[in-house]
Design goal:
Blueprint: H1 7-13, E1 17-23, E2 36-43, E3 46-52, E4 57-60, E5 69-75, E6 81-89, H2 101-111, H3 113-117, E7 121-126, H4 137-148, E8 151-153, H5 154-159, E9 171-174, E10 180-183, E11 186-191, H6 192-195, E12 198-203, E13 211-212, E14 215-220, E15 233-238
Parallel strand pairs: 1-15, 6-7
Antiparallel strand pairs: 1-3, 2-3, 4-5, 5-6, 7-11, 8-11, 9-10, 9-13, 12-14, 14-15
Length: 242
C-alpha cells in the first residue's frame, strides 16, 4: 500500500495507536523516534501492522496471533498497561485454511473469550465482514456474541445504530463489469467500560470515491499510575488503505 508515501496521511490522523493492514514489514515510520510497532504476515510487502506514537507503546503477544490477527499489549506513555489490542485483517479462505472471514473472526473471539469477558480487549481493523454482504448471518452472529460478552462496535455505539443500519461505508468495491458495491467492514470493538468514554467515531471520505476510508475512534481512556491521578485524552485512529 506504499505506507512510506502516505506518512502525511497517517500524521493527519493525530492518533496514538494506528492499525494498518496491507503494510510492508519494513517501513520508515517504524524507525522514527518515539514510534513503537508490531507486524505480522506471510509476505514481507503485505501484512498487518500496529503503530504507537507520542510515547504510546505496543508489545506483541507472541504465540497468540496468526496471519490475520496481531495481539499486542498497549501501554500509555507513563508505562501503564491500558488494554490488549487484537488488530485484525482477515484473509481470503484460500489463505486461511479454508476459513471464511467470519469464521476467522469467530476463532479470534474464541481464543480471547476470557480476556474479552474481563473487559481487557479491543478488537480493531479490517474484518472483511459486513451486513451489506449477500448473507451477513455469520457476521451478525459474531456481533451479537460480542455484545453478549460486553463488547460493542464503537461506530454503532457512538451513532446509536444497530448492526446493518450503517449510514457510512468504509469500503467501495468495484466488481466485474464495473459494478460498485459499498460495505461497512472495518470495526473497532471496545468493552462497555471504554464505550462510555467515546468522544467521537468518524468514517473518513473515500479518496476519489473509491477504496478504503479511515475509521477513527477517539476516547478518554488513560489509566495512570496512582501518582498521576489525572486523565488525558487518548486518541486512537484505526484505518486501512488511506
Amino acid at each position: 500500500m506504499g505506507l512510506d508515501r502516505k506518512r502525511a496521511l497517517v500524521e493527519r490522523l493525530n492518533a496514538d495507536i494506528v492499525v494498518i493492514p496491507e503494510c510492508a514489514r519494513t517501513n520508515r515510520i517504524q524507525d522514527e523516534i518515539g514510534v513503537s510497532s508490531a507486524w505480522t504476515g506471510r509476505y514481507e510487502r503485505k501484512g498487518l501492522g500496529v503503530f504507537g506514537f507520542d510515547g504510546w507503546a505496543v508489545e506483541p503477544i507472541r504465540g497468540h496471533g496468526n496471519a490475520w490477527s496481531l495481539p499486542s499489549l498497549v501501554y500509555s506513555p507513563d508505562g501503564v498497561e491500558q488494554f490488549i489490542l487484537v488488530a485484525m485483517w482477515t484473509q481470503g479462505p484460500e489463505r486461511a485454511g479454508g476459513l471464511s472471514y467470519a469464521a476467522q473472526v469467530r476463532g479470534v473471539i474464541d481464543h480471547w473469550k476470557n480476556e474479552i469477558a474481563d473487559g481487557r480487549v479491543v478488537l480493531a481493523g479490517d474484518f472483511n465482514c459486513s451486513a451489506q454482504t449477500a448473507d451477513p448471518t455469520a457476521h451478525l452472529d459474531n456481533v451479537r456474541r460480542l455484545s453478549e460478552m460486553g463488547m460493542h462496535s464503537a461506530y454503532h455505539w457512538a451513532h446509536g445504530l444497530p448492526a446493518g443500519a450503517e449510514d457510512a461505508m468504509t469500503l467501495r468495491w468495484v466488481g466485474r463489469g464495473g459494478a460498485a458495491s459499498w460495505f461497512h467492514c472495518d470495526f473497532v470493538f471496545v468493552p462497555t467500560g471504554l464505550a462510555g468514554r467515546l468522544t467521537s467515531v468518524q468514517v473518513g471520505e473515500l479518496r476519489n470515491g473509491w477504496g478504503r476510508a479511515c475509521l477513527t475512534t477517539r476516547l478518554c481512556a488513560w489509566r495512570s499510575r496512582p501518582s498521576h491521578p489525572w486523565q488525558q485524552q487518548m486518541r486512537r485512529g484505526l484505518r486501512r488503505g488511506c
